[in-house]
Structure formats: structure tokens, C-alpha cells
Write a structure and sequence with these properties.
The chain is an alpha/beta fold. The chain is built from six helices and seven strands.
Amino acid sequence: METKEFKIRCSAIGQIMTNPRSKSETLSQTCKSYCEQWLKEQLYGVQKHIENKYLSKGIEVEALALDYYSEAKGLGFVLQNTEFFEDDFLNGTPDLILPEYVVDMKASWDCFTFPLFETDVDKKYWMQLQGYMHLTGKRKAKLVYTLQNTPDELEWNEPTDYEGLDEVLRIKEFEFEYDAEFIESLQERVILCRDYIENLKKQII
């Protein structure tokens, strides 16, 4: 039973890099579940889609957020990246590639989910940007949150207008540097995932 070789999407790195609860195991249950889902997608030719209001807003305000960020930071005219990057272990499409760094954009649902006071980020986003840096050859990255008005068709409550606020209340940046050791451990984990997937395939032959 032939399937393409497993490679991890940068946005899903966090799912395979969780550590198992037992030292006797090499892969966590979260990692195994992801591998099983990936294999089902290959076998049935269907991708699992997740939809919710947060993802929907992020998609709808993507271009608006990029324009707002580039203007606020004096980046000039920039285009969202559409190039798909891939190597032997991972793949992905970064939102924005600049001369010195790569950027991943996040659109907060509202001011209460906007990370105004946070100093740390979810580890999965750090991992995602490590992947983007590796694929693009950049050694610096930024995770950028912007706060945009919610489109009327998605708004559940009384609409809130953020457009008149200072950018310090609407843009939050987190900066990272490339971690070669993490990439090496990621590559090792991908190999273990491939072994697990091959064992799964043997169960259904």
C-alpha cells in the first residue's frame, strides 16, 4: 500500500513534538493520533477540516491585518507570501518573508483574546516559526498578533470598533531566533513518525 512519505506541516509541528508520558514510549498519544489522521487522509483522499469562528475571522481579515501591520511598521508595500516551501522533513507556507526575518500573522478574536500583557507564547507557535525559519533560511522570526474589527457576519455580540485605537493596543510582536538543536530533534521525530505510520499500514494489509 503506497502513500507519499510523511512530512510535517509547520503549523502542526507541535502535535508531533509532545513528549510521551512514559519513558518506555517513543511517541506520545497526541503524536500517534496525528500520524493516524495523516494516514487516513492519504488512504481516503480527504483532508480533515476544522472550522470555528476564530479561524474564520483569521481568514477573512488576513489581507487587512497584513496591510495594517506593514503600514504601522513602515514596511512599505508588501505582499503576502504564497510560495510553498518543502524539504525532506517538513513543509509550509509562511505568511510574510522579509529580508531579515519571517513572519506569521495571527488575528485575535477580540481585545480579550489579544495578548496585550503576555510575555510568552504558546510553544506550538514557536515551533511553527522554527520550521518556517528552517525552510526559508532565515535566522529570525516574528509572531505578530493584530486586533482587527470582526466582520459583521461573524460578530456574535455588539460590534466593537478598534480602528481608532493606537497601534500599541492593536499590534503585539514576539521575536524568536533559529534553534538548530530543535530542528535536529524535529527531524528525528519525523523519522519515528514514519516508522509508526509504516507499522499502521501493515495492520491493514
